[in-house]
Each structure stands twice: as structure tokens, then as C-alpha cells.
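the two lines:
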Amino acid sequence: MAQERDRKSLWGAGGMILVASLLIFYAFTLEQRRMIGDEAGHDPGSRALPLGSGLVMLIAGLYDLGKQRRTVQKFRTQQEKSPSPSAGQGTHSKRMLFWGTLFGSILYLLLLERVGFLILTTLFLYLLFFFYGRESVKGKRAEKRRGSEQGLSLKSDDRAALEASATSVGMITGGILACLLVAICYGIGRIVSRELFYYGRAVGSAVLASRAVSTVVFLLCSAGVYGGALFLGQKTSFWKSKTMKWSIPLSVGTALVLFLVFRMVFRVALPLGILDL
Amino acid sequence: MDAFLIALEQVLSLETILWIAIGEVLGILIGALPGLTATMGIALLLPLSFQLPFAPGFGMLLAVYCGAVSGASIPAILIGIPGNPNALATVYDGTLMTAKGKASLALGSAVLASFIGGILSLLALVLFAPLVAQFTLMFGPAEKAALALVGLAIIASISGDELAKGIATGAMGLAIASFGVDPFTNSLRIPFPELFRETPLSTGIGLIPVLIGLYGVSQVFDDLKRLSSPPSEVHLQQFTETFPSLKKLRSMWRIILESTGVGTLIGAIPGTGASIAVFIAYDRAKKITASGKHGLEPVGTGCVEGVFAPEVANNAVTGGALIPTLALGIPGDSSTAVLLGALLIKGVVPGYQLFQQKMHLVYAVFLTLFLANLFMFLFQLKGIRWFAQVIRIPLSYLLPIVLILSLIGAYAVSGQGFTTAVYDTALCLAFGLIGYLLKKGGYPVAPLVLGVILGGMLEENFRRAIKLAQGNYFVFFTKPIAMVFILLAVVSVVLSLIQKRRSARLVKNSKF
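prediction for all of em together
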């Protein structure tokens, strides 16, 4: 563990030196201009801050690298005396989660305008809940497995979660369901609030045509559909596993709340994408 | 008087009260969740505050700050894991009290102590901030540049384990702040200007995406490794509103006053923070109660005194840390660094001018901080049962919400322009990755944030000072105030080096 930390610090120091060198190079490519009215040339110029910070970073990075190298060497000598067992079990799935989250976020950004905020956020959140939940259940399972030797057993819903998560069909079905649910919530909320708005304008009622009323009506309609779907799902024991039971409602609920707060209350131009009919 | 009435009118509006209440609840929840910090909470809610007028927006952020500092005591007392470093010292006596079946009393004491600490430090803020601000009248460009350097030096020396790493990230922050347009010549300072001249990069790197990325997104990446650890098991007892008796409170007067003093003072020193204050306050309380006189129980045995001292101190830090933030523009800790960013985004520049020309905004800060403390007391008191449940929420549900809030928060800042919004979101993601890599390499993030915030101030005043001194780079050593600041920076660096060497020696000795 300590060895891994030292290795990371070594890489960290190397990275800092690289960034500092790039910064210094960049500073030299900048046009050195002085402030207006400084004919005498006393102003340190536009380059001063980037160059100064680059140099400070470089010195600090070099100092840190030297220090880390000494630590690693010291550790190696100690390790030769007493070799420790290698760590790293289970790091593969965590690494996958890290890269998945990073690329998922980049993809989210790239597709936001085309697909739209509601559908894409729901889908992205659903996948995150699903995979993170699976990782969490795996951890729990490993713990329980250790505990089962002491007489503890795995809960049935945890077992079901693992079984469901093992199939990609379950995951895809869940994703489609989540997207459908959010589209229905939005569709009904939008139709009702728009009709009310038109009605308000037709009868000359400023209250009915106001943004506040539209927001509240949208909130009530989407909450009604959302609540109804959840209730039906629970009653008919539609959700096969704990992961599914939570992933779909949480992703849809979060996306709707964010949409309501940012788009309807604060008027942030969140793209509607394919829902913009 | 007029300024006070204007502020009162702004603060007592339904909108302000509502947003402070929302901020308070969110703050307590964030504090109660182990691993989530007050700084992250404030950073995540920055975009919302950006959309609101000053009083409700900044009040909400202050409420998150107070709530998160205080809420951290809940897991510290119930499961022995502090919600964030502010409650590190509460763990000792808090868990012992829970083991004795006195969890309600411990939680009640923590809430009351937080309220007392918060209100007393608010008094200190009201009294001292204007005085400190007046002091800034004596500052010229050289003094201002030296002050910015002091802030950076102190935060670099205190945060993280190694000084060199703190200095490196502080310098990185300064470099990031320099991207965009040169304030004096209007020339572009970006890589490949021909290529990026027409892109949003030409306007520089916005503060909000940097803050959200460094504190929100990087937290998600960093916490992925904790996913497989099971959520904490809380055996909830029948919580009742139990407080220490009035007699007990009277007997603890010295602990309360000393802890408030320690918290406010430590908070007011730029770059420090509650995690230092709570241990000093706890240690002082230990010494005061050692004799066992005046009906005081010895701290460390699972008593109210041991919960009271750190909890008074950590909330006293909130008011203390706002003194240099409002008066000098130098944050007291990483949370106030984000709060300072929020002020600057709102166009509020701290310093004497603020106290002279926009006193209604200063009063609004004082009043909203009072409301935030009051709500913190009421909400924690009435909702302790529910807030305690929060500890059970697994990370697998929390992390996706934090990630999406970060991305959408960064997107929302530009509001209408899609290209700028996507640019800000991409920046947020990039800084999340940078923050994660820095953390992995053992580099502290707080100096980077402060570098980004203070970069503009440092550059402008540094260049102006050198120009006024006709190219004399030693001008900073010829001005007494600037000299004092430089000495302060040197002392803080040397002290931190001595302290780190001493603690390393202690660790080494304890191994043998």
C-alpha cells in the first residue's frame, strides 16, 4: 500500500515537472507586451505571471521528485528485507468504473444537445446507479462471504440484484423503462401545462398564463405520473432486484427535479433534444 | 442605519428565508454524510446561488457552510466517523457517550454548542471585520501583492503533507488564473491563440467550473474506491431533545469562551481551518476539566464537555474565517475560499470599499449568517432523527447524483449560450480529472483554488507596484506593511516545516 502511494507520488512529481515545463515553454511563446503608458519599460509584462508560476512549479516539482525518489529507494531496501503480499485485487473493476464514468461523462456532454437533457440525464444516471450499485453489492457479497463462514447468509434481494445485473438484457430493459417513464412524465406535464397556458390566454387570465402556475402544474402532473408508476411497480413486484428497484425511480426522479429547478424555475436553456416536438 | 434597513428588508423576505432554509437542510445532510465536505456542498450550490439575488444566494451558501460544519457531528457521535474533518475531535467523547446510551444528550449538546459557537463568532465578525477592513486603507499595490502572497504561502504550507506540493499547486492556480486576456494590455494569453481566438477559452477559465470540478467531480472519482464498502449501520435509539442542564452550561463557561476564542482566532488566520481549531479547543478543555472541580467531568471519559469544546470551536471558525474573507479578500479556509469566489462572481469585491460603499451587503452577510445559525439549531434539533438516517445512504446512490449536479451546475452558469455552457461543463470535467490526479499524487487542491482566486489580484498589484517603483523588484522589502506580510509568510512556512518534522519524528518514534 505504502509502495503504491510512493509510486503514485513519484508519478505525481514527474507530471508536475512536465506541466511546469510546458507552462514555461508556453510563457515564452506569449507576446511580451507592456502596459499602456509604460515607455520606460518598468512593467514586468504579460509573461511575468505564467513564467513565474511555471518556474515555481518546476522547482517545487524537482524538489518533490528528489524527495520521492529517496523515499522509494528507502522503501525498496526495506522491502528486500521483508517482502509484503501484493495488493490490487478488485482494482480492475474499480478502474473500469473510473474509465466508464469519465467516458460516460464525455459522451453525455457530446450528446446533450441531440438527445436532450431529460432522456440523456435519466439514462446516464440509470447506468451510473446500476453499475455503482452492482459494485456495491459485489463488495457486500464479498463481505458476507467472509461472514458466512461465521454463520451469516446473503440476503435474497442482494442475490437477486447480482443475478439481474449479470444479464445485459436486464440492464438494457431497465434503461429503456427509465427513459420511457421520464418521457411520459414530461409529455403529460408539458401537455397539461401548455393547454392551461393557452386557456389562460384565451380567457385573459394572467394567473393561469403565468410561469409560476405552469411550473406548479408541470410539477404536479409529472409527480403524479411518477408516483403512480412507482406505486404500480411496487404493488406488482415488477422490480426484480434491489438495484433495479432503486436505479429507475432514482434516475427518473433526479432528472425531473433538476429539470424543474434549472429549466422551469431558473430558466436555464437545458436542451430538450428528441423531446422537443 | 439606512444600509441596515435595506439589508434587513432583503434578508427578511420570503425568498431569502426559504433559500437559507433549503441551504441549511442540504448543508446538514452533506455534513452528516461521511466524506462529503462543506466546501464541496458550497461548490455544488454555487450555480444555484448565481441565479439568485445577493441575499438569498449568498445566504444559502452560508447556510450550507454552517449546516455542514455542524452536521458532521452526527456520524461522529453515532458511528465514530466524522462527516468531515471539522468533527474529528467530537468522535472521542461523542462515541463514548453513545456507548453509554447517551446519544441524545451528545447530539443535543453538539447542536447547542454549534449554535453558541456560531453566534459568538458572528459577534466577533461584526466587531472586527470593519476594523480589519479599515486597516486595508493603508494598503498600496505592494502591500496588496504581498497580502495575496501571504494567503497563498500560508494555505500551501498548511494543507497537505508536504510544503513543496502545496507551493506547486498554488503556482499552478496562479498560472490558470493568467489564462485569458491580460488585464493591462488586452493581449490574449492562451495557448495557440490563432486557433482558439474565437472560442470561449479566449475569455479565460471561469471560477465556477474550476471550483465544481475540483471539489465535486474529483470527489466522485476519488470515492469510487469506497463503493464496495458497506453503508454504516446505525442503531437508532429513541432520540429526544436532550440538552445539558443550565447548571452544567454555567459550569462550562470557561470551555465555551476559550473554544469560541480558539475557533474564531484560528478561523481568522488565513489558510487554517476547523480541523486545527477543534483539537486545540479539545486540548484546552482537557486541561480545564483535569482537576474535576466546579462539577466538570474530565474530557475523554464520554462527557458533555468533550463534545461541547470541539463543537463550539468548529462553528466559531465559520464567523472567524469570514473576517479576513470580507475584510481583506483572503479566505480563512477552503470553504471560505469558495465563498470568496461566490462573492467575486456576484461582483462584490471584499475590502474597505465594500464596507464603505456597499455596507448593506455586509449587513446582509451578517444577518443571513445569524439566520443560518438559527436555522441550523432549529432544524438539527427537530430533525435529528431523520438526519441520522442519512448515514445509511449508500455511496452508490450518492455519487451519481453528485456527478450530475456538478455537470449540470457548471452548465447552468452560462444559462443561455449552449457553446459556452458545454465549454464550462467540459472545463468542470477536466478540472475534476486534474483534482483527482492531484489527490492521487498527494497534491493538495486548496492552494490551487486560492491561486485561481488570488491570481488576478496578485498580478495586477505586483505589476503596478513594480511599475510605480520604476522597476525596483525590492520594493516589497522597503514598505513596512508589505515586509510584515512577507515575514508572516516566511514564519508560517518555517513553522509548518518544524511542525511536520516534529510529527514525523513522533510517528517514527512510536514505531519503535
